């Protein structure tokens, strides 16, 4: 993926130090910030195991336990 990514960066005028991992990480982080659940993020990231998603992005998920308990 390095050659195609280098060409895309060049054509788009993106900085040389912008790597594909940074874009993927930002994509997942933004999804979670907007309220996406980890299963959805895992599928969109094409992770074969949700544990990968939990390991890298689980800390970004808001704890909604109190909100759910208050609802009851």
Automatic annotation (TrEMBL):
GO terms (molecular function) for this protein are: DNA binding
InterPro entries cross-referenced by the UniProt entry: DNA_brk_join_enz, Integrase-like_cat_sf, Integrase_catalytic
Q: Which GO biological process entries does UniProt record here? A: DNA integration; DNA recombination
Q: Which UniProt keywords apply?
A: DNA recombination
The chain's coiled-coil residues are: none
- Pfam families membership: Phage_integrase
Positions of the Tyr recombinase domain: 1-70
The name on file for this protein is Site-specific recombinase, phage integrase family protein
Q: Which organism is it from?
A: Alishewanella jeotgali KCTC 22429
Lineage, opening ranks: Bacteria, Pseudomonadati, Pseudomonadota, Gammaproteobacteria, Alteromonadales
């Amino acid at each position: 993926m390095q050659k195609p990514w280098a060409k895309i960066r060049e054509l788009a005028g993106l900085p040389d130090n912008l790597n594909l991992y940074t874009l993927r990480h930002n994509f997942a982080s933004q999804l979670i910030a907007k309220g996406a659940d980890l299963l959805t993020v895992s599928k969109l990231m094409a992770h074969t195991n949700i544990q990968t998603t939990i390991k890298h992005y689980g800390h970004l998920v808001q704890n909604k336990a109190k909100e759910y308990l208050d609802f009851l």
